[in-house]
Backbone:
């Protein structure tokens, strides 16, 4: 029964990993480049949401929590577009390694900036800043199984975001343009699709989703730190590799799987071993299917 309780909690919380990995996957799918600043974008967005909640008394108000959520999404989109403009757009004709380095540099700059801000601004704590919210003490019982209310709400919100993203990619003109650029950028260009416009749309949406994930995760933890993004970036990379690089559907499913594995391992063995177990599973999956579980074939690109 205890294992089942851990598994359910992991499944619910794993939806946030899916959100982080989806944004990471979307950007890679269009640019064929890893955005190492994706985690830092998430962290900045989470701090913006926490700031709103702290300043306006979010501990007792669902309206303030909702405002914090939308603020995190907006800030995530803005920071993501700035990352694109600084770290990716000027280096489009450069080597594949250049955006990797510049986005990593931006991630470090953002992280260190917030390390210093948390030491200087009184509403923040030097190590861990509280994210006040009214969901902390809500619990549900299904028989003898204990479920945190915040996990259930996070799962529902994440599912809504993922369903909306799926609908957008499949049925809207801009979403189909994104899929065209992912599958064959040259053919998309010949069909008159503006690659730069697609990049801007993808960065804004992927970063807004990262902002949503950052807010949801911080609400679940009840805290936010400057290192939140770097920790989640590693998990999202594992999800990305497990799913198969470029598979949005795979990222959704594998994020849930990783959440279950982490929570069950932390509960049954110890929190210190959950990453080790995760990488052991990743190792064996790559031995059997090195391209990833949900990998799809895409056209070669320059």
Residues:
């Amino acid at each position: 029964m205890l294992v089942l309780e851990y598994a359910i909690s992991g499944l619910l919380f794993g939806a946030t990993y899916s959100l982080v990995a989806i944004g990471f996957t979307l950007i890679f799918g269009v640019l064929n480049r890893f955005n190492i600043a994706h985690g830092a974008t998430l962290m900045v967005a989470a701090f913006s949401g926490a700031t709103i909640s702290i300043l306006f008394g979010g501990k007792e108000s669902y309206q303030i929590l909702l405002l914090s959520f939308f603020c995190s999404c907006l800030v995530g989109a803005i920071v993501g577009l700035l990352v694109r403009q600084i770290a990716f757009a000027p280096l489009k004709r450069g080597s594949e390694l250049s955006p990797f380095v510049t986005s990593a540099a931006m991630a470090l700059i953002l992280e260190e900036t917030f390390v210093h801000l948390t030491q200087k601004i009184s509403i923040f704590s030097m190590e861990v800043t509280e994210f006040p919210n009214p969901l902390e003490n809500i619990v549900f019982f299904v028989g003898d199984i204990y479920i945190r209310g915040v996990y259930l709400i996070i799962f529902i919100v994440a599912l809504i975001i993922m369903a909306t993203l799926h609908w957008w990619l499949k049925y809207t003109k801009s979403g189909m343009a994104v899929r065209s650029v992912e599958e064959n950028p040259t053919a998309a260009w010949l069909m008159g699709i503006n690659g730069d416009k697609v990049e801007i749309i993808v960065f804004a949406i992927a970063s807004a989703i990262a902002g949503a994930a950052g807010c949801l995760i911080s609400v679940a933890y009840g805290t936010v730190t400057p290192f939140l993004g770097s920790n989640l970036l590693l998990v999202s990379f594992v999800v990305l590799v497990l799913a198969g690089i470029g598979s949005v559907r795979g990222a959704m499913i594998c994020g849930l799987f990783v959440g279950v594995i982490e929570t069950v391992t932390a509960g049954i063995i110890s929190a210190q071993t959950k990453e080790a177990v995760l990488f052991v599973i990743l190792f064996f999956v790559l031995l059997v299917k090195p391209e990833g579980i949900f990998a799809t074939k895409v056209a070669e690109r320059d």
Observations:
- The first helix runs from residue 2 to 31.
